[in-house]
From TrEMBL:
<dbReference type="InterPro" id="IPR056573">
    <property type="entry name" value="Lectin_L-type_dom"/>
</dbReference>
<dbReference type="Pfam" id="PF00139">
    <property type="entry name" value="Lectin_legB"/>
</dbReference>
<feature type="domain" description="Legume lectin">
    <location>
        <begin position="859"/>
        <end position="1066"/>
    </location>
</feature>
<dbReference type="InterPro" id="IPR028994">
    <property type="entry name" value="Integrin_alpha_N"/>
</dbReference>
<dbReference type="Pfam" id="PF16640">
    <property type="entry name" value="Big_3_5"/>
</dbReference>
<feature type="domain" description="Legume lectin">
    <location>
        <begin position="631"/>
        <end position="840"/>
    </location>
</feature>
<dbReference type="InterPro" id="IPR032109">
    <property type="entry name" value="Big_3_5"/>
</dbReference>
<dbReference type="Pfam" id="PF13517">
    <property type="entry name" value="FG-GAP_3"/>
</dbReference>
<dbReference type="InterPro" id="IPR013517">
    <property type="entry name" value="FG-GAP"/>
</dbReference>
<feature type="domain" description="Bacterial Ig-like">
    <location>
        <begin position="44"/>
        <end position="130"/>
    </location>
</feature>
<protein>
    <recommendedName>
        <fullName>VCBS repeat protein</fullName>
    </recommendedName>
</protein>
<keyword id="KW-0732">Signal</keyword>
<feature type="signal peptide">
    <location>
        <begin position="1"/>
        <end position="28"/>
    </location>
</feature>
<dbReference type="InterPro" id="IPR001220">
    <property type="entry name" value="Legume_lectin_dom"/>
</dbReference>
<dbReference type="GO" id="GO:0030246">
    <property type="term" value="F:carbohydrate binding"/>
</dbReference>
<dbReference type="InterPro" id="IPR013320">
    <property type="entry name" value="ConA-like_dom_sf"/>
</dbReference>
<dbReference type="InterPro" id="IPR013783">
    <property type="entry name" value="Ig-like_fold"/>
</dbReference>
Length: 1069
């Protein structure tokens, strides 16, 4: 292997640049004539047009040779943007198929010429392609509730046209959580200039097997099956793979074929090396010291060819025709055997996929990128090489121009000023017909524009300043017409240089100018994106995984990034279309009246020439309202526990009997991060122990011990007994059990008595034992301070104080919870009544612009479009049914939008009906929403047998709910498992907590990925109150699965059961 010396230049850059670079030959030869036949399938956008050039030297067909197919009024497109290029066949014809953008086209063919035959051009064929009558659009939504009351939002929308005209009409805002109810409608305003689009759904890779996507690298675009649609060639773990384009953005996998693939691929180039009209592939093989070629079969597969052995170790390859015989040649940068010296080695093609090495063109130290092009306009290809200026090297950091002699050798060398270069691309960026350079130094983060003079020299203009990236660095450079104006631009990926705090961008640099530094360059970026990889890792994304091509039906370029991963990951489509026009809507203020989460979208219905589109949803919320301010007129919505009842519009907790423990909770979880509440109460006689206002996450049937436990905690001094864990309580105490007196308030957490924050009310004139009517107001709890006001409504005495700095979310482990009251009596008794109650809570912690989260608090009635159901999982009514009392099932259900945060909370209710079956898991995993494991004890998550690999769901974290003893775990257990391991042992038996998963009861589960690298979970029996609460151990790196899909798996074996998830919410904190 050669010693490491640099990052390879993006293959795409090489291909693009060699397609721009060959003006007509300067010396005489046999005259030729070129004709062009244009055969469109139709004259509408998306149709394939066949271009066939015929070149003759009367009366003989010309072969070999290269033909460029041009679009425009210029005589040649070789320094510009050709429609395509093709080698001449033995019959003197060259053919390409292409999807042309809408508009007027001036098509002509240019034969490049060889040392034998003169160049020639065809007549121009004018062709008009009509724009689609259904131009694709993308719709976006924005929201804000700054300076607005809770539940009110200002909504705005944008409709982008992925084409030359702006959309018209209006946008409606719809609440998808409530039957797509229309919240507001607003007209579209004025369109903007063309801009970039970050389009996650513009291309469809769903038909590509995950094993291919997981290891895809070094992508190259081309038409590998000659159907006129751009394909993508990648290397995967099994070798070469072509992803066949359809012209619609959807890709399918071509069959596998022989590929002559070396063990290590240092460089890969695509060209028609044997002039048969089919694209071939050349590889550099550093281990074998050879160049290998795989011949294209014209169907997306490849056949083996001979290898060309070299004396030295090849690295990067560059494509051209250096001896002007019309046959593709290569130049390889090689490491000289037994040294640290490097040479640029010309390899002249024989036309059969093999090459002949000639004398080295240039010797240097550690090499940087190189470019093949005709920089001095003499019709012969030149070579620009760079040196890195590495420590100890005699070669300074600069680039050198080697002038081609047209016979495979190179002449005089012209050196640039000293300038460090990590990436370099060439093109006619200022539309003057002369090739220019753009370089990126990679050290000082400077992007520099070098204007070509036309003689092989370049000037970095004094009035053009390099672009400095202060907080980020470029990880690639590519070339393309990114704004659709017919002039080449430069693009790249900006990456954070620090600790991942700066988002990544695809950035294009447009309109290079020679007259005004203000015009160099105009920088336009996509919105910040994650690229599906976390940026706090030290390794940046692989720059060779970027590819550009016209993959849609409009002939305009898209940029795709294949995400380096150990699991199947959908490629990021950075830019769906550069020639887009946006319309914005005016802002509308809407009020959400139904408490809870609302997923709201902007919907564009389309017009006569634009298709409809719908935005991704934003997650908004309306405050949860408990409004019994005039008394409790109905028990609907309340869980009354231990004997609590409604009596004449009053919530009666205790009814005058001894040793009672009672509670009442609102049955639905409500936001508790920020809330206000008011309630009136009366303690009719002074003989009870008191009451508590409680916020908890165990369940609506939670209840503690009697006596001094106040129905909330354990009896004072006891080490066991019922209590409400994961909770916060404000205690109103009327009995002296442990020295607290008989007229005090305090805050307790976790169902544990704590007298440290006790406040005696005597000095305020408040007496809880007086039998008076009292009003409690907790106003504006903001996640930190809890401010309480207690008023005697009979005497008007008031106690008001900031009770405590309190983190309720940490105490209950969630941002939403159950709210209500508890009370108790001991050896003496009294009647305790709640006379009325109001509560309003505001949801927290979701970033509406970026978060799309599972929110099904009332069941799965409207969930079918957002949850992927696999292998028999189904939505039945409002329930997510994982198993259906059928033996040997393995099912799964995942939210289709991945979670992109490390710290999350998941809540769901479930039932397991029947005593057979094996159980289920809740998990987050990075394989995709279609993942599923095996049946039986694998629970739909793991492999068939313990220790087996390859059948479980990798890159995952799962918590099981197990009802069958497969490997010693028992018939009632839970546990934490990683990466598709068989979920048997280790396990935690639930019996001691009184949780029995086989009871058929309804259970509530809460699972939290905590910041202390543990998974915290609780299970509550909602029929016969019992709680299991524990912290499950997690390795530091395993509870931080990034970009993962949350969901469930389940399995049955020889016996079966029915497992149902009744509701589900998932959020960040």
């Amino acid at each position: 292997m050669p010693a490491p010396r640099r990052l390879p230049l993006l293959v795409l850059c090489v291909l693009v640049l060699t397609a721009l670079c060959i003006p007509s030959l300067a010396y005489a030869g046999t005259a030729t004539a070129t004709t062009l036949q244009v055969t469109p399938v139709c004259l509408s956008q998306g149709c394939v047009t066949t271009l066939t050039a015929t070149v003759v030297a009367d009366p003989s067909a010309v072969h070999p040779g290269l033909v460029y197919f041009c679009d425009g009024t210029a005589a040649s497109c070789e320094n510009g943007i050709p429609v395509g290029r093709a080698q001449l066949l033995v019959n003197g014809t060259a053919t390409i198929k292409s999807v042309l953008p809408s508009g007027i086209h001036h098509l002509h063919a240019v034969f490049h010429g060889t040392s034998t035959y003169n160049a020639s051009s065809s007549a121009t064929h004018d062709l008009t392609v009509a724009a689609s009558t259904s131009i694709a659009t993308q719709t976006y939504i924005g929201s804000s509730n700054t300076a607005l009351p809770p539940g009110e939002y200002s909504l705005s929308g944008v409709a982008n046209s992925l084409g030359p005209s702006a959309p018209t009409g209006s946008i409606s805002y719809r609440d998808t959580s409530y039957g797509n109810a229309v919240l507001a409608t607003a007209p579209l305003g004025a369109g903007t200039a063309p801009q970039f689009i970050y389009n996650t759904g513009g291309l469809d890779f769903s038909q590509i097997p995950g094993t291919i996507l997981a290891s895809a690298s070094k992508p190259v675009s081309g038409d590998f099956n000659n159907d006129g649609f751009q394909d993508i060639l990648v290397l995967d773990q099994a070798g070469l793979q072509v992803l066949l384009g359809s012209g619609t953005g959807r890709f399918t996998a071509a069959p596998k074929g022989a590929n002559n693939l070396p063990a290590v691929v240092c460089s890969m180039l695509v060209a028609d090396f044997n002039s048969d009209g089919k694209l071939d592939i050349a590889f550099s093989d550093p281990n074998g010291k050879s160049i290998r070629v795989s011949f294209g079969n014209g169907d997306g597969t490849f056949a083996d060819a001979k290898s060309s052995l070299l004396a030295n170790t090849p690295g990067q390859l560059y494509l051209g025709d250096f001896n002007n015989d019309g046959i593709p040649d290569l130049i390889a940068d090689v490491q000289v055997a037994g040294s640290q010296a490097y040479e640029f080695q010309p390899l002249l093609g024989k036309g059969d996929g093999t090459f002949t090495a000639t004398s080295a063109a240039y010797s240097t130290g550690a090499t940087g990128p190189a470019i093949v092009a005709d920089f001095d306009s003499d019709g012969m290809q030149d070579l620009v090489v760079t040196t890195t200026g590495a420590a100890g090297s005699v070669y300074p950091a600069q680039f050198a121009v080697l002038h081609g002699n047209g016979d495979g050798t190179f002449g005089a060398v012209k050196l640039s000023p000293s300038f460090s270069t990590l990436y370099m691309v060439a093109g006619d960026f200022n539309a003057d017909g002369i090739l220019d350079l753009v370089t990126y130094d990679g050290s000082f983060s400077l992007l520099a524009y070098w204007q070509g003079i036309g003689d092989g020299t370049f000037v970095q203009l004094s009035n053009v300043s390099p672009v400095d990236f202060f907080s980020s660095s470029l990880n690639s450079l590519i070339v393309g017409d990114f704004d659709g104006d017919g002039v080449l631009d430069v693009g790249g990926v900006q990456m954070d240089r620090g600790e991942g705090t700066t988002p990544s961008y695809f950035t294009a640099f447009l309109h290079f100018s020679t007259t005004s530094s203000a015009d160099f360059p105009q920088q336009v970026s996509t919105p910040p994106i994650s690229m599906n990889v976390p940026f706090d890792v030290p390794t940046p994304p692989n720059l060779t995984n970027l590819v550009v091509g016209a993959f849609g039906n409009n002939g305009l370029p898209s940029v795709v990034y294949f995400v380096p991963s150990t699991v199947a990951t959908t490629p990021v489509n950075f830019i769906a279309d550069f020639n887009s026009v946006a319309h914005t809507t005016q802002s509308n203020t809407v009020t959400l009246t139904t408490p809870g989460v609302h997923n709201v979208v902007a919907s564009y219905p389309g017009d006569n020439s634009h298709a409809a589109s719908v935005s991704a949803p934003v997650t908004l919320s309306a405050p949860a309202q408990i409004n019994d301010g005039s008394g409790f007129t109905s028990s609907a919505g309340l869980a009354l526990n231990g004997g609590a009842t409604l009596q004449g519009g009053i919530l009666q907790l205790t009814d005058g009997k001894t040793f009672e423990a009672r509670s009442a909770f609102y049955q639905k979880r409500v936001p508790v991060y920020s809330f206000s509440t008011t309630f009136d109460f009366q303690i009719a006689s002074p003989n009870s122990d008191g009451l508590a206002f409680v916020i908890q996450s165990n369940g609506p049937n939670a209840i503690g011990s009697n006596g001094g436990g106040l129905g909330y905690g354990q009896t004072p001094g006891a080490t066991s007994g019922p209590s409400i864990r994961n909770s916060v309580a404000i205690i109103f105490d009327t009995h002296n059990n442990q020295g607290e007196g008989n007229n005090s308030i305090r805050v307790e957490t976790g169902g544990v008595t704590n007298l440290g924050d006790l406040i005696d009310l005597t000095s305020s004139g408040i007496d809880l034992r007086s039998g008076h009517h009292f009003r409690v107001v907790i106003a504006g709890y903001n996640g930190v301070e809890l401010n309480l006001s207690l008023t005697d409504l009979d005497t008007r005495k008031v106690f008001s104080q900031n009770l405590i700095t309190l983190d309720i979310v940490s105490a209950i482990g969630d941002t939403i919870g159950y709210v209500g009251f508890t009370s108790a009596t001991g050896a003496t008794a009294s009647i305790i009544n709640i006379l009325n109650w109001n509560y309003a809570g505001q949801i927290c912690c979701v970033t509406p612009a970026t978060a799309v989260l599972p929110s099904f608090p009332d069941g799965f009635t409207n969930a079918a479009s957002t949850i992927q159901l696999n292998k028999g999982a189904a939505i039945v009514g409002s329930e997510l049914q994982l198993t259906n009392d059928t033996p040997f099932e393995a099912t799964s259900a995942f939210f289709k939008t991945p979670n992109d945060q490390f710290f999350w909370i998941s809540d769901f209710d479930f039932t397991i009906q029947g005593t057979g079956g094996d159980g289920f898991t809740f998990l987050v995993q990075g394989n995709g929403p279609g993942a599923v494991g095996t049946s039986g004890g694998a629970l739909g998550y793991g492999p068939y047998f313990p220790g087996e690999s390859g059948y479980g769901i990798g890159d995952s974290l799962a918590i099981k709910f197990d009802v069958h003893n497969n490997g010693g775990e028992g018939i009632n257990s839970t546990g934490l498992y990683f990466d598709g391991a068989y979920p048997s042992v280790p396990a935690i038996d639930l019996t001691s907590s009184r949780i029995n998963l086989r009871s058929g009861h309804r259970f509530h589960a809460r699972i939290l990925s905590a910041k202390d690298a543990t998974i915290k979970m609780s299970i509550t029996d909602l029929d016969d109150y019992a709680v299991f609460d524990n912290s499950l151990y997690s390795r530091n790196d395993d509870n931080s699965i990034f970009h993962a899909y949350p969901g469930f798996t389940a399995g049955t074996g020889a016996t079966a059961n029915t497992i149902k998830i009744l509701n589900w919410t998932f959020g960040y904190y």
